[in-house]
Amino acid sequence: MNTKLTARLGLLLICTAVGPLLGAPTASADRTVTVNTGAGNINVRSGPSTGSQLLSTIPNGTRVAISCHVRGEVYRGGPYGRPTDIWNQLAGGGYVTDGMLETGSNDPVVPTCGGPPAPAPTSGRSMGQTRTTNPGFAGYCTRGAYAKWFEASGHRFYPALSGNARNWANSARAAGWTVVDDAQPRSIVVFQPGVHGAHRADGHVAWVDSVSQRPDGRYITLTEMNGSAGFNRWSSRTIKDIPGMAYILLP
Predict the structure, then answer these.
(1) Of 42, 60, 86, 209, which residue is most buried, by most CB within 10 angstroms?
(2) On the CB side of 141, how many CA atoms lie within 13 Å of its CA?
């Protein structure tokens, strides 16, 4: 993880309120990096998630050797303030989040490895609070996401959500809906501000039509309103699932 982040300007999507293929690493791939937790120790896990077995801890400031990386649970803590799904395998075994390592980059610095795959997609889809009308303002992304959900539900209900697009994941959790970080079809994807061109204040939402796995990660094909086609217009695109995206699942 790098402390210096480069802002990337792209398509501005305006909203308003209402695993991977793995290969074995080689010994020469090891890279020495520094643990940077901000305070305290870093946890070494048996797999690429905070729910995996705790194997040991390593003090802040320790130099450690990492051999390879996998994509796993999105980690949102650490001193850098940037979510990451990169988990590095230590040369001696076990996984640590890239969010607490000073590697000099926000991207992987070691090859993909043959360790455990990323956590399997969540199968449970809870039923949350609903509403009978679409409260999104006409022409905006929230209106479109509600409409696609309603259509996929068999024209039965809308989810009872509130706030700007960026707030929808938290709103959905509070309303009883299942929200996950791993990309899944039949869901609303919530983009945090700036992610894939989302509005830098309000974020963005869209409907996920399908999910596919490629050698470099998971991709989603989505349908959105007020996206690349402009205000009050529908459009579709295929993009990579990256940190800063969450998914509200339709049962």
Answers:
(1) 86
(2) 33
